Amino acid sequence: MIRIGTCARLRALQQDAEGARERAREIQGAADRAYAGHLRTVYDLTADAEAAERAAEAARADAEIAREILARTEAQLADARARVTEQAARIDALARELDAIAGAVVLLHYGKLHSVHPDRSAAERHAASFGVGPGGWSPVADGPVEESAWLISPLSKWAVAVGGDAA
Question: N or C: which end of the chain has fewer CB within 10 A?
Answer without folding.
Answer: N
